User: Fold this.
Amino acid sequence: MLLLAVLTGGAGARATPQGVQVIPKPVTVTAGRGWFSASSAVVSVASATPETRRIAADVAGLLGGRVGPGGNVMLALGGPARLGDEGYDLAVTSRAITLAARKPTGLFHGVQTLRQLLPATGARRIPALTIRDYPRFAWRGAMLDVARHFFPVRDVKRFIDLIALYKLNRLHLHLSDDQGWRIAIRSWPRLATHGGSTEVGGGRGGYYTQRQYASIVAYARSLYVEVVPEIDMPGHVHAALSSYPKLACDGKPSPLYTGIDVGFSSLCVDKQLTYAFVDDVVEELAALTPGPWFHIGGDEAAATKPRDYLRFIGRIQRIVEQHGKHVIGWEEIGRARLGPDTLVQHWNLDPAKTALSRRAAEQGARVIMSPAAKTYLDMKYDSSTTLGLRWAGYTSVRDAYVWDPVRQVPGVGARDVIGVEAPLWSETTRSLADVEYLAFPRLIGIAEVGWSPARGRSWAEYRLRLAVQGPRLAALGVNFYRSPEVPWR
Ligand code: TNX
Assistant:
């Protein structure tokens, strides 16, 4: 028995009391004695600000108690430096709960843990324990491609609700591609009204007004998720060229595109108008985005000459920086000279392209790990999956969990990796139900890869904890894939 405990997670297994099945797995869990009964909860805040009061109200709602002075559930701002901006300390006894964090973000993450400590159904009680918890990586993201198929605001907000439960803190929105332009730009209105008017398969498409985009950003922030907008350039721009033919090198009008090929469109690197266009788009979108990043894409620019690509990326970086944002690009931008504070996103299977992430890291860029064979949520689970693509192979729930971000690319190690992100490309997903089916449960495993220490993680132990999420996902109405790899409850 002892041997088994050692084999399935060492110290973690011993310290994790029966019934504590939190994902992502906390850094340390120590079992106590007894249970705290949620119905007796009175929630108080030691450091009352509008923000901490809002979190206190959430906790009261979660426990079915109320907010008030002198309570038995205490929220406080403070704690050791080790907790960082996102960590928290949680102590539960049969009489009281204390949750402490250095920042409201940490309190919020602690509340997500509390949520999972309550049973999905039945008696509302929490086991006595202490938890110290903080993330391994600062960047823990999901990406939604709203360009291939459009998803309305309510779908995006629901997706944010779900990712925040697992302590993900970035939502990358892929806002433009060959098939659609999804954000209103006032100085170039046809991008949205024409370029947003269809999608893969010829459906109606759609776009976000600036007010709607701002509401997504604000909603995400209220759940401690930062939105990262992407305008993909210089390739993946057919919808923009169709909206404004003068942006194309040949200036010729072209109909919108509803297929799923890649690598056939390019902005015209020699036209002055191209840079005026990019400047306008970046200016408007940067003004709507409080987060510090702007993703310029840069992937699969097969229709742009290599020399032109380098020139283009150089100029675009300067434009983005002039608007006060840090550049993010897919790993192909590692070919170019990169400015400080640039992030590159690793994705390719091809070792020649992967080497570009190393080149970027050598220039001082940090790397977001999105290896396609592990994190691409649009890959099929197995040969029986009807949704999804399979160019990176099948990706089982186990595949999405069993990997280490600092061992993906030779020469890109712990100093270089800022975190992980799971992209969901939407060529085959036509509804939020489709998105949920591909994202869940694999995204939950990616969330743990991004948050929890590498030591003590094992598939054998994780799949049992994941099984417990089944009733929780079902209660939320999530259309998740009941993979046969998991002994679902
Ligand atoms: C590759 S990943 C792409 C996307 C596709 C995706 C489909 C990347 C940077 N580019 O354009 O949607 O594969 O899986």
In short: The CA atoms of residues 90 and 99 lie 5 Å apart. The pocket of TNX is lined by residues 262, 299-300, 330, 347, 376, 378, 389, 425, 427 (CB under 6 Å).
